[in-house]
Design brief:
Elements lengths: L8 H11 L5 H12 L8 E5 L6 H14 L3 E6 L7 H8 L21 E6 L8 H8 L8 E6 L5 H5 L7 E5 L5 H11 L3 H11 L3 H12 L13 H11 L4 H12 L5 H8 L5 H8 L4 E4 L2 E4 L1 H14 L1 H21 L2 H13 L22 E2 L5 H12 L1 H13 L4 E5 L5 E9 L5 H5 L2 H13 L7 E10 L8 H16 L3 E9 L5 H6 L10 E3 L2 E9 L5 H12 L20 H13 L4 H4 L8 H4 L8 H14 L8 H12 L5 H8 L3 H25 L1 H8 L1
Parallel strand pairs: 1-4, 1-5, 2-3, 3-4, 11-12
Antiparallel strand pairs: 6-7, 8-9, 9-10, 10-11, 12-14, 13-14
Length: about 700
């Protein structure tokens, strides 16, 4: 025996992460209570929610290990790796479970014990929420336990459904407590003298703790005593300063710009033979997450890492960007069908930071919906969409093309398989003169092409004629997202392509977007159908082929200002553990008459205060109002009047000392202290409910 661990490297890394896992004892015990209920568990669904970086995925890994150790069959779904469609979810479950056709009960492998279903990144599966609640989970065995982890609390439908009332448990995952944070640092082997400062800086944010641990472990220093505005934005640049060499820095750059990083991609980026050492190094970093098709940075980290590396070494950044682009282009050339669409998605993802390099994108659904060729049964829904948004004249034109070139029509489907949107790509070079003349858009494209640089015999002339989303028409939507995926795929697969046109309504608003992408407005080629005006955007692929076209995008992406600001500022909010939250509330009451001290209170960066702070409002003033309002809730119950009086004479209208407050109330000091303690405990409970559930829901819970 050589002493090496058995299994894969992934098994070893997973075990290392479990060894560093701390805390979450309440959540684990809640899960064990259901797991121990062999036949009739106390609940069937545990919904864990919390912001990015708070440790949801790590908790699921531990719960999965506990379930497997108890002999359960553990099935896992990760919303980051799936299309939000029932087909995609069921295909993922079929790797572990028996999924019958229709709505029949889900089966377990022979001798598989009870079922535990773990669903991570549920926010990515939001379109399927009703399907999970009403269709999928009811098919599981009665003894099954489902754990859903996502950024958002369960929707109202879960909470108001009487059938789910007794079967649902909801946990708001908070930052680690001070004790657990110290335990994390002890397991990481950090100098004990640094523990208190690190815990104070991060407030127990798990990703923040892991990042700062990485910084210190690689020789970085903890110099600041000031709570940073955004932990990830502050800590990642410190981590980059500790990266061993330029080779590792290029690896970080590749991981930041690519959707997913593999060893094959790193070989292309580094132009070296063996890259297993740097891939393993990357995989072990605290802010890197494994995906089925590679590694990706935590979404809180990607933009910060991209901007920092771009600033530190722009020449190196350009080199990495180009190599990743070449890798994606090579994948385009080698694949077809859905695999090619995924490669196009990866290529377009490279340019996500440049606002004017692409048409407006709905990034929440980017890459989640893919176009597919329309079926005969889709004809009715397609024409209904055209008529609903563009009128009967456009619908008649679409019907004619659907009859002449049905293979040119594509649809995007929703999670129920219904038509969510449609596109049509027509080849005008093989169309009859009558068909072209019957469509003002086709006629405008034909005339522009032949007056500018006429197609030669045997060359194709294509037109993306209709782009319609059921809900957004031609606004940011899954359908608009699918348009560049489908058009680039057609451009790559169409032999001898000359001109390619895109027809859109309200063309003036699109000029800047498509001019930046070298798909400029075809001057003088606007046309009208009914009361709606359209414009054509054109590119001649004989003059600028696809490879040169993407090179142009690259040049513009690397010379234009990029959008590196976090898209969701709510991610910068603190999610304090209950002990930290209680301490901050008590400190806030002590500082109630000192706005300068209230301005330093961590509650200012919690949901409790942020939900109430408008533009230009003073955070300290808002916090003072929140605390005073919470104290007045004690007046809602006559039995609590004595508690309110104690709080009032201590903090709201304070006496000189607590002894003086007791005397003013005519109470023995011990009685006064008991009333004050009970009153503050009640106030903390009220504010905690508001912090976890929001002000409106907290009022419902306490009414």
């Amino acid at each position: 025996m050589d002493g090496r661990p058995s299994g894969t490297l992934g098994d070893v890394l997973t075990e290392h992460r479990r060894r560093r896992f701390v805390g979450r004892s309440a959540e684990i015990e809640l899960f064990r209570a259901a797991l121990d209920g062999a036949i009739d568990p106390p609940y069937s669904l545990l919904h864990v929610h919390g912001p990015g970086g708070v440790g949801k995925t790590s908790l699921l890994e531990v719960l999965g290990a506990i379930a497997a150790g108890a002999g359960a069959t553990v099935a896992r779904i990760d919303g980051r790796d799936l299309d939000p469609s029932p087909v995609s979810v069921l295909e993922a479950l079929e790797e572990t479970l028996s999924i019958p056709a229709g709505d029949g009960p889900v089966g377990l492998p022979e001798g598989g014990g009870r079922l535990v279903l773990l669903v991570d990144a549920y926010e990515q599966l939001t379109p399927l929420d009703q399907w999970f609640r009403a269709r999928l989970i009811p098919r599981l065995p009665a003894s099954a336990i489902t754990v859903i982890a996502g950024r958002d609390a369960p929707t109202r439908a879960w909470r108001t459904d009487p059938a789910w009332g007794a079967l649902l448990r909801v946990v708001s995952l908070r930052n680690l407590s001070p004790e657990d944070s110290h335990g994390f640092l002890r397991k990481a082997g950090l100098d004990r003298h640094l523990h208190e400062r690190i815990v104070r800086l991060t407030y127990g944010h798990p990703l923040g703790l892991a990042l700062l641990t990485d910084v210190v472990a690689r020789g970085g220093r903890v110099e600041s005593d000031v709570l940073p505005l955004d932990l990830v934005e502050v800590l990642l640049p410190r981590f980059v300063e500790t990266v061993p060499d330029s080779r590792h820095r290029r690896v970080l750059g590749a991981c930041a710009v690519a959707r997913c990083t593999t060893e094959a991609l790193l070989r292309d980026v580094l132009v070296e033979g063996d890259v297993r050492d740097v891939f393993t190094w990357l995989r072990e970093l605290s802010f890197i997450e494994p995906r089925p098709d590679g590694l990706a940075p935590h979404d809180l980290a990607r933009d910060v890492l991209d901007a920092d590396l771009r600033w530190r070494d722009f020449d190196g950044y350009q080199h990495v960007f180009r190599k990743v682009r070449e890798h994606s282009l090579a994948a385009l050339r080698k694949t077809t069908g859905r695999a090619q669409q995924r490669a196009i998605f990866d290529l377009k993802f490279l340019f996500r930071q440049v606002r004017t390099a692409m048409s407006p994108v709905e990034w929440g659904s980017w890459g989640a919906h893919y176009p597919e060729r329309a079926r005969p049964a889709d004809g009715g829904p397609i024409l209904e969409l055209v008529q609903a948004w563009e009128g009967r004249h456009s619908a008649a034109i679409a019907a004619r093309w659907l009859d002449r070139q049905p293979e040119g029509f594509f649809v995007i489907r929703d999670h129920e398989g219904e038509v969510l949107g449609m596109l049509a790509i027509l080849d005008l070079a093989r169309s009859s003169r009558d068909d072209v003349d019957a469509d003002p858009g086709a006629r405008a494209a034909w005339d522009f092409a032949h007056s500018s640089a006429p197609p030669r015999p045997g060359e194709a002339l294509t037109l993306c004629r209709f782009v319609i989303d059921r809900h957004r028409y031609q606004g940011p939507s899954p359908t608009l997202n699918a348009t560049p995926i489908l058009t680039l795929q057609k451009q790559l697969s169409t032999p001898n392509l000359s001109w390619d046109f895109l027809a859109l309504a309200e063309p003036d608003k699109w000029d800047a977007y498509f001019a930046m992408g070298d798909l400029p407005r075809a001057e003088g080629a606007d046309f009208s159908v009914g009361d709606r005006r359209y414009g054509l955007f054109a590119h001649d692929f004989r003059k600028v082929p696809v490879d040169a076209w993407t090179e142009l995008w690259t040049e513009r992406a690397l010379t234009q200002d990029v959008d590196v600001a976090p898209r969701d500022h709510a991610q910068a909010l603190l999610v304090l553990s209950h002990p930290d939250f209680e301490a901050a509330v008590r400190q806030g009451f002590k500082d109630l008459r000192r706005p300068d001290l209230l301005a330093r209170n961590p509650l200012l960066r919690t949901r409790l205060v942020a939900d109430r702070t408008g533009e230009g409002a003073s955070g300290a003033a808002v916090l003072e109002a929140v605390l005073r309002e919470a104290a007045t809730t004690l007046a809602h119950h006559p039995r609590d009047d004595k508690l309110l009086r104690a709080v009032d004479r201590t903090y709201l209208r304070p006496a000189a000392t607590q002894e003086a407050a007791a005397a003013a109330l005519g109470l023995p000091f011990s009685t006064y202290r008991r009333h004050l303690t009970q009153g503050m405990t009640r106030i903390v409970s009220v504010l905690w409910d508001q912090e976890v559930y929001g002000q409106d829901r907290a009022e419902v819970n306490t009414s």
